[in-house]
Design a protein that fits this description.
single chain; 8-stranded mixed sheet; DUF5675 domain-containing protein; two-stranded antiparallel ribbon; alpha+beta; 140 residues; 15% helix; DUF5675
Length: 140
């Protein structure tokens, strides 16, 4: 399974659209781009793999692996990127502003269900992060 995350960058945070095979899954929110700095930046655009992860805080969730110079980058519920994220990606049902969304738990449950079905079949789940703007067009 290949998930495509298409971002739009804003100074206050990133808004995204997550799709699989051309079908919309949910929107996403992230921290703004700050040169991949730990805990204050979204992750770089690129190709990653997703695996299951468990923690006491988030229970069963999703981890994005092999992010350069970063660890514990997760998909987990959050509605405000600046207040609730440290570099992770939050699925949201509806976008309400740059880095802001609504009904994150509902969107996360939908995403987790889709991804876990594939992982339970021992198949890989790939995440491709891209943007509507290319290269130097991006706001930094």
């Amino acid at each position: 399974m290949i998930l495509f995350l298409t971002r739009t960058y804003f100074p206050e945070g990133c808004n995204g659209k997550l799709e699989c095979e051309g079908k919309f899954i949910c929107n996403t929110i992230e921290l703004p781009w700050k040169n991949n700095e730990t805990k204050v930046s979204c992750i770089p655009e690129g190709k990653y793999f997703i695996r299951k992860r468990y923690s006491k805080k988030f229970q069963w969730h999703l981890e994005i692996v092999d992010v350069k110079n970063r660890s514990l980058i997760l998909f987990h519920p959050a509605n405000n990127a600046l207040r609730e994220l440290n570099g992770c990606i939050a699925p949201v049902t509806k976008l309400s502003g740059p880095g802001l969304g609504l009904m994150s738990r509902k969107a996360f449950t939908k995403l987790k269900g889709l991804v876990y079905k594939v992982l339970d079949r021992q198949e890989s789940v790939e995440l491709i992060v891209d943007s509507l703007l290319r290269g130097n067009d991006r706001e930094e």
